[in-house]
Amino acid sequence: MGLSLWFWVAFHVLIIGCLFLDLKVFQRYLRITELKTAWIITSFWILLALIFNLGIYFWQGSEVALQFFSGYLIEKSLSIDNLFVFLLIFQAFQIPKKQQKKVLFWGILGALFFRIGFILLGAKLVHSLDWVLYIFAVILIFTAYKLIRKKAVFDVHRSFILKALKKVFPIYKKKNVDFFVIKERGKWKITTLFLALLVIESSDILFAIDSIPAIFAITTDPFIVYTSNIFAILGLRSLYFALYQSIEKLHYLRFGLAGVLFFIALKILLAPAFSIPISLSLIIILLILSFTVIFSFFFKKKH
Description:
Helix content is about 75%, strand content about 5%. It is built from 11 helices and 2 strands; from the N terminus they run ααααααββααααα. It has helices spanning about 5-30, 35-60, 60-95, 95-130, 130-150, 160-170, 190-220, 220-235, 235-240, 255-270, 280-300; strands spanning about 180-185, 185-190. A two-stranded antiparallel sheet has the order 1-2. The chain is globular and about 65 Å long.
């Protein structure tokens, strides 16, 4: 999709405005860690994405609009599994809830920049080498397998980033510090808040490697891949606090996500012989995710 420079400038001005709104308004004046407020803000971000999706519908038609919505839905759904990892990281570092929002903001800001790099690279590869999509299919199948086989316990202290940092930088041992670095007895030290941020960033890089190929399977249009990804990431912080009490109850969501990734991989592999319409793909994805979410809560009630 050929787009003018002015469009990209306007889009990124919108995103910067959203980040400013999140940091200077939502964080300062609203209690984002409270359940009701978190759901209101989450609804705002979802509504913003849907308005953008509606604009695509009137501008480019229903097919492209469905591609955007499918990409947005996949990224948003996969991010819930990543939010569970964030929760475990915060628990491991004993980060208080009021400080988690600060780590999440800067972590998500970093994720936006990583996404730009991954998407630009992915778009160049896909448009230069047709067979790259088959590599993406293999990545998706492997990721689906990892989701099914994943252990319930996440050991944050096995992180390579964490081990390397502890060897190079002195660590400030005290908890409940609202800074990433602090000076103690004339010596700069990094805090557990900074350690949590870096572990979250490293986990998000791995998450991006797994999730971005899934959207390229829906569409190879860099505009749709990029914008759907960005809009899905924007509301992650409020979504984390909205689902704070429920994340651990979604026991079977990972099986649904694995099913979605396997289906998308199958869509790529079957494409030369049989093209699955985007509308049918969206219905299948929605059914898989809805079933696993409902089953998770039903199973919890029964047991």
